[in-house]
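Response to reviewer comment R2.3. The reviewers asked that we include at least one raw input/output pair. We reproduce the pair for Glycosyl transferase family 2 here without editing.
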Amino acid sequence: MNLKNTAPKKAATRKTNLKSIFRPFSLTPDKANKTYNILVLLNTFLLLAGGAFLVYQMQHDFAQFRVERLSSTWGFMFFAIATTLFLYKAGFFIYQLFLYFRYKPIASVSNEELPTVTVIVPAYNEGKQVYATLKSLTKSDYPKEKIQLLAIDDGSKDDTWHWMKETKKQLGDQVAIYQQPENKGKRHALYRGFNIGTGDVFVTVDSDSVVNTNTLRNLVSPFITNEQCGAVAGNIRVLNNAKALLPKMLDVSFVMSFEFVRSAESKLNSVLCTPGALAAYRRTAVLACLPEWINQKFMGKPSDIGEDRAMTNMILKQGYHVLFQRNAYAYTNVPERYKGLYKMFIRWGRSNVRESIAMAKYVFTDFREGSKTGSRLLFFSQATKLVMCYPFLLFMLYFIMVHPVLFVSSTLASILVLSSFQTIFYAKRYNFSESFWAYTYSILYTFGLFWITPYAIATASRSGWLTRELPQQE
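Raw output as returned:
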């Protein structure tokens, strides 16, 4: 008998038996991912419950801290300002709630009434995703003879141009593709599209987004029903939220930002930002401000960020209404890692600073017919966040140094209370189980991203897209 040959077979058999024994206890990637998500949510609720419990147990310490602060002149002044702002924010939130319940998206007009549209898709280092974007647009139930679809490669360093050519081969005359000689930035890619486009309405769609079949017709219908409409913001949801934690959190945040905040802004005819992922503009309104937009500068430097917010601002300045269409959906990819997330937020923060300054120059003038109170209230709400940013940051740092336990516990208890509205709102609109990510996101933003706004203010003059060179998963 050959023992050398039988020993390996026996060992292999034992390994196989062990695998079969432990297989029921092993986790597939999907199960492991779900388990991890559950653990994150459990830890979130433990933190929030712990914070609420500490606040209850330390009521005497909180009372003593308030007495100490109110006994000093600076402490009393800060308390008075903070109370005033809190009452204003609470009142403004109730006003937003009132506007939200009054908001209704405009239903699609008939095929005969729909305007001609030029859909512009700028792309940079997007790879195969641009193919999915263009395909989703060609599946729209919009009259084919009224759509001009333009895809513009902004000097990509990957295979984006290859996928554009593949799309062209499949779709033929349904899409026209162009390539910038070098990377000039998204604003210049859009500028080329605006100059080429022949539609009565320009629609911009990011190359990492996909749309529903009825998105285009719903998006542009307000231009027919409202002659004063100059721009329309689409409803943005997260595309890559199946597994990664950050996209799950951002999806809840986006629903609050778009479906609540922009619904309220739309009732005031003053949506402050039409998102690059999906927006529509009246042709005449764009052409009227196009030279100013492409040559825009901030502190002497060309603006290469915030092109969507800048276009919105310039159209509002002309006296047009800017609306939101909740029934026009686009699904877009968002960062899956912290580095990509904070870079995206920095870019948005700098744009917010720049355009708030630009808006201050006209919002208190007679810039349009009819009521301008709503626009001014929205501006004031934005401006107070920027003006009070550093005072509250200093108070927070002081609070942490003097009473770290009181700070952490009160902050967690506040998140538990304030984020509950966002949770309920998302649960009512979409999914109950996913709504709890609102709490996790609030903790992340409060403790991990609080520095974004003060940093963006301090570096508002800096240019650069920040995330353009990052891998897509970032």
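The chain is about 60% helix and 10% strand. Confidence is low (pLDDT under 50) at residues 470-474. Further pairs are available on request from the corresponding author.
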